[in-house]
C-alpha cells in the first residue's frame, strides 16, 4: 500500500517539474506588441515591412491605447522582421497581430514566403486577416487615419467582422488561404482595401476582392461583383438588394433587406457531359420604397419577389460568365464540388479543369421571399 502511494506521488510530481512556467516568458515592457503589418517591396527588390505597434507607456486612470509605426527592410520577409532590432531594442511580438496588408506588387510575385513565416513561427496566429492594398503601397493603408479606434489594424479587423451586414467583401484568414493552396478545384480570394476621404479625412475602405492563382495575385473585382460572388459561394449573411421598378416614365427604387440566404451547388454528369445546378434561396424584408404603391398583401409581395429573382439571377449569371471567360480561375469551388460528389469523374478531368471550367454550363435557379414590409404597409405620402 505504501509503495502504491509513493508511486502515485512520484507520478504526479514529475510533470509538475516541467510545467512551472512558460519556456519563453518575457515581461510586457520587454516586447513591442505588433497589432498589424504592411508588406511592400522597394525598387531594388527588398522587402519593406511597416508594423504598427501598441504604445503601452501611457499611465493614469483612463489609459488610452496609442500606436506607433516602424519601418524595416530586408532581403526576405523574416529578415525585415528581425532587422527592426537595429533601431528598436525590443523584439517584435506577433502574438496579437490582427491584420496584414500586402501590396499588389508583392502579391503578384507571390506571398508564399510571408505565409511560410506566419505559419512556421510560434507567435503569429493563423487567424490573422490578409488584405490586398488597392493603393500603390500597403503602407498607405496602415498609415491612414482611423475613425473608431487609435489602432489602425484593430479597426480594419472590426470592419471585416461587421461587414457581414453588408455582404460586399470577403474575409480571409491565414489558415484559410493556406488551406486553399492545398485544395483542389477552388482558388483563394482575399479582400481588397483602399483609401477614401470621409468628412475630409483620408481613411481606409473595403473595396472588393482579389483573386489568386496559387499564391500569386491574378486579378481584382469590385464590391458589387463581390456581393453576387458571395451569393454563389453561400457566404451572404445580410446586406441589401436594390431593385429598380418602372412606373410609367418614372423609375423608383425598392430596397430589400436580406434576412437569410442559402446557396447549393450540385454537379450533374449525364450522357458524358458535366453541368452545374446552382440554387439560391433568399429571404428578405421590405426595407425602403420610394413610390406610392401599397404593400400589404401576398400579391404585391410576390410581384416584388419576382423582380428580385430576375435581377439576382441576371447578376449571378453575369459574374459567373465573366469569371469563366475573362479569368478562367475557379473561385466558386465548382471543381471542389465535383471532387466531393463525383470523385471518379474528378480524377479524369482534374488535369484539364482550367480549360473545362471556361465553358461548363451553370443553371441558376433563384427563389426570393419577401416576408413583410416593416412598420409600414405603404410609402409615406406628401400633401400639396
From TrEMBL:
Pfam hit, one: Spore_GerAC_N
User: Which keywords are on file for this protein?
Assistant: Germination, Lipoprotein, Membrane, Palmitate, Signal
InterPro entries reported for this sequence? GerAC_N, Spore_GerAC-like, Spore_GerAC-like_C, Spore_GerAC_C_sf
Record domain Spore germination protein N-terminal: where: 24-194
Which residues are in the Spore germination GerAC-like C-terminal domain? 207-374
**Does Plastid count among this protein's keywords?**
no
Keyword Flavoprotein in annotation: no
Give the GO terms filed under biological process for this record. Answer: spore germination
Q: Which GO terms describe its cellular component?
A: membrane
- Where does the signal sequence lie? 1-18
**Where, subcellularly, is it found?**
Membrane
Q: Which domain of life is it from?
A: Bacteria
Tell me how this protein sits in the membrane: Lipid-anchor
The family classification in the record reads: Belongs to the GerABKC lipoprotein family.
NCBIfam families, sorted: spore_ger_x_C
* Full protein name: Spore germination protein B3
